[in-house]
Amino acid sequence: MNKSFRSAFALILLISISIQPSYASELLIWDKLSASSAEGYVLLLRHNLAPGVGDPENFKLGDCSTQRNLSEEGRNDAAEIGAWIKRQKVKIYRVESSRWCRARQTAELLDIGKVKINKNLDSLFGGSNLESHPKTLKTKQKILSHRNKRGLLVLVGHYVNMAALVGVGVDSGEGVIVKANKNGVIKVLGTTPNLGN
To answer: In this model, does residue 24 exceed pLDDT 60?
Structure first.
C-alpha cells in the first residue's frame, strides 16, 4: 500500500467515522418512539420522488393525470420506508396527507394506516410569507395539540411546507421527527433513514 493510497484511505475512514455517529444519533429517536409511553411525536414526511418542480400549468386538484406523480423509484421507495417504519414497531396515531396526488400516493404506499386527507398540508409552492400562511399555522396547531397524545402522527406533504414549519428541507421521501415542547416551540428531534438515495 503506497503512501498516497494510505492517506486517501485514512481520510475516507475518518470521514465515515465522523459521519456515522451523527447519522446514528438522528435515528436514536426511533427507540423512544417504540416505547408505549411515547407522546407528542410527529413525523413530517416529504412525498417520494416525483420528477419535476412545482406543478404543471394544467394542474387540477382532483385529476392525477394533470399532476406530477411518483416515479417507479418513488413508489418503491415509499413502500420501503413504510416497511422500515413497521419494523420499528411504532404505534401509529394517524396518517394524514396533502390532497396532491404525489403526497397521497406516498401516504398510501407506506401502508401504515388509513390515510386522512388534510388540505392544510397542500403544497405552498410559489406562495409568499409561508411561515405565517394560514395552512402553516393550522399545521403547527395540529402538532401542538398532539403534544400529549400517544402514537406517531404522520403528516405527508411537501418540501416548502416543511421548510416553513420547522426551517429544514429534506430530500424526496425523507422526513423529520418533531415534537412541541411545553412552551409551544416545535423542535426537530430526529430523521428517517435515507433509504432511497
So the answer is: no
Q: What is the pTM of this model?
A: 0.85
Domain borders along the chain are 32-50+62-191
Second CATH level (architecture) for the domain 32-50+62-191: 3-Layer(aba) Sandwich (3.40)
Q: In Å, how far from its chain's centre is CA 107?
A: 11
Give tens-digit pLDDT for 81-135. 999 999 999 999 999 999 999 999 999 999 999 999 999 999 999 888 999 999 9
